[in-house]
Every structure is written in structure tokens, then in C-alpha cells.
Design a protein that fits this description.
By secondary structure, the chain is an alpha/beta fold. The chain has 11 helices and 10 strands.
């Protein structure tokens, strides 16, 4: 007699399969006395993706002029596609405008918000020449949220789940339970993309040494590991809601890069603290880069500033070329580039 199939892990069981806590030394350079024993991380100028997909461009019109004005020359030269996150009431009208315009920036997919009313989806364009993915805002566990997610996943859609909650154990548990329940009968072609958790909301006034052992960071580590166990689930690396604008990266002067500001150094240290556990859990093949903050976020961030900050942070973490290519473009192409 053959053995029965294994019982799926519950959300509470998965939560205990967290990676070990990363020491503070993982995010700071070695002391002068030991520096000769460690290789220097690659220079940010030497770590660059072959092609780039910006998988989170929030728009309320068909005009991408702001994106173009804020993008660096490298980003413009290597961009191979964007994923537009629509923030409008009349989705059908905007989709029609996008279809009628010839954009210099290739549109890989358009993510439209939707809901379920009386068992039927509402908000999805009746027809479209541009690839359509779906988006939903998740703030708490509810039958309506699970029903909407279940419908989208059973029909093989890519769904951006924009997480809007206070990052505590209870909220994480409800998200895990909702995603697990909704994906029970998912089509193998469907994909969940979690937004606004990498990095999560943070308090910049809390010193890094205290953050490392803080309950919110411990919860982030544990639940990032748990979320990664849900099949066909990816996570987006987006500008965080840290109540301050993303620090700028000034252009080189005479070929020499200006020294980073203290604010930028602090941001990079924190970004690396959050990217580290995400890499342990999801790997570099399930992290997707985007430049716009969540549509529901109050964060301020310019396209080029976030791109430079992420590029330098990944370089300092020692991510190899294959991983850089995947995070900046390959993963988004795999998820959003497939037929919807």
C-alpha cells in the first residue's frame, strides 16, 4: 500500500521554519585589523543588469513622462519593459488610451485593480490588446479578499497583492492563511506577487543594533520565510514607506562619484538588513524590482534614486551577476511576460 500524501503545512507551522537571525556583521564592513582577510564587495559600477524591467510603475494617466524624467541614463538605456500599476477609477478608458499610444518604453503588463461582487469579477477590462494582470489591496483577512484571490488564481492570473497592515505576528498570520486558502485550487499558471513588504514600514529613529533584536524585525524574518513556502509566490523590492523620501545619488563630478550622505548610508544598511532574509527565503529567482512605492503608500521616491540605491545595496551584499540579472529583469519577464 502506498503511503498517503503529506499533509500541507499550516500557516502556524510554517512560521517556525524561519532562517537563522543574521548577525549585525553581515551588514557592516570588517574592522581595519581584519579587512585584509575579507574580499571587498564588488563596486556598484561593476554590478549592473544586462536588461532591466521596472515592475512597479504607478500611473493615473497614459503619460510616462515623469518616469522618463526621473530615470537615470543607465535605466533608460537598459529598460526592456515596465509593468504599469493603474491607480484610476476608469480602468477601461486608460487601457484604451494605452493601446492607442506608441510608448517608447515597452509595456510588459498592465496591472488593474479588481474586486468580486455577487460571485463575478468587477473592474477587469472586457478586452485589451495590452497584457493584463490583476491587483488587490490586502489590509485584513476577509471572505471577500479570499474569494477575489481564489477566483484570480483559479483562472491563471498574475495577482499583485499590495499589503497594507501593521507588521505584527497576527497580521502576518492572517495574510499567510488568506494566501494559502486562496491558492488551494490555483491554476499552475497563476502567480502571487507580494508588494509593500520588502522592505516593510520601518522607524528610522530606531538604531540598527536595536532593530536587529526588535520584535518587528524578528516577525519579518520568520514570516518572510513562511510566505516563501506558498507555491508560485514572488516578492517585490520597492521603495519603502519610511516617512522620508528616498535619498538621492548625485551624478559623478569629473568622473568621480561624490561620497554618500549619512542618510543614504543608513538607508543602504537597513535595505540590506531586509533584503538578506528575503534572499534566504525566496532566493534571487523570486525577487522582483520596481521603482514606484505602493499606490496606497505616502512614500516619496524618484525612479533613479531608488534604482541606484538598490543597485549599490545588492552589490554590497555580494549578489552575483546571475542574481542581479534575475532581480532587475529576468524574474519580472518570467512572471509578467507570459500570456495572461
Amino acid at each position: 500500500m502506498s503511503a498517503p500524501p503529506p499533509t500541507p503545512l499550516s500557516a502556524s507551522t510554517r512560521r517556525h521554519k524561519a532562517p537563522p537571525a543574521l548577525p549585525l556583521s553581515a551588514f557592516t564592513p570588517p574592522s581595519t585589523g581584519t579587512a585584509d582577510r575579507f574580499p571587498f564587495p564588488p563596486s556598484p559600477t561593476s554590478v549592473t543588469a544586462q536588461s532591466i524591467v521596472d515592475a512597479n510603475v504607478v500611473v493615473s494617466s497614459s503619460d510616462l513622462s515623469q518616469w522618463k524624467s526621473e530615470a537615470t541614463s543607465e535605466l533608460k538605456e537598459k529598460i526592456s519593459g515596465v509593468v504599469l500599476i493603474l491607480k484610476v477609477d476608469n480602468v477601461q478608458q486608460l487601457v484604451e488610451l494605452l493601446e492607442s499610444k506608441i510608448s517608447q518604453v515597452p509595456i510588459l503588463s498592465v496591472s488593474v485593480p479588481f474586486r468580486i461582487d455577487n460571485g463575478s469579477p468587477v473592474g477587469i477590462p472586457s478586452s485589451s490588446k495590452v497584457p493584463i494582470s490583476l491587483s488587490i489591496t490586502y489590509s485584513r483577512q476577509s471572505p471577500e479578499a479570499v474569494e477575489a484571490l481564489a477566483w484570480a488564481l483559479s483562472n491563471g492570473h498574475v495577482v499583485d497583492v499590495d499589503v497594507q497592515f501593521t507588521a505584527d505576528d497576527k497580521s502576518y498570520d492572517s495574510l499567510e492563511e488568506s494566501l494559502t486558502t486562496a491558492s488551494k485550487d490555483a491554476n499552475p499558471e497563476s502567480t502571487i506577487v507580494i508588494s509593500n513588504l520588502l522592505p516593510p514600514v520601518d522607524d528610522l529613529s530606531l538604531p540598527l543594533v536595536k532593530l536587529l533584536t526588535h520584535p518587528t524585525y524578528r516577525a519579518y524574518q520568520a514570516h518572510t520565510a513562511s510566505l516563501s513556502l506558498i507555491p508560485n509566490t514572488y516578492i517585490k523590492l520597492l521603495p519603502p514607506n519610511w516617512r522620508e523620501p528616498t535619498p538621492p545619488t548625485p551624478a559623478p563630478v569629473g568622473g568621480i562619484r561624490p561620497e554618500d550622505s549619512s542618510e543614504k548610508k543608513e538607508w543602504k544598511r537597513r535595505i540590506k538588513m531586509y533584503v538578506g532574509p528575503a534572499l534566504e527565503a525566496f532566493g534571487d529567482q523570486r525577487i522582483i524590482f520596481g521603482t514606484s512605492p505602493s499606490p496606497e503608500s505616502s512614500a516619496k521616491s524618484a525612479v533613479g534614486d531608488w534604482f541606484e540605491l538598490v543597485k549599490e545595496s545588492l552589490a554590497e551584499l555580494g549578489i552575483e551577476q546571475e542574481g542581479v540579472d534575475a532581480i532587475f529583469g529576468g524574474n519580472a519577464q518570467k512572471v509578467y511576460g507570459k500570456k495572461q
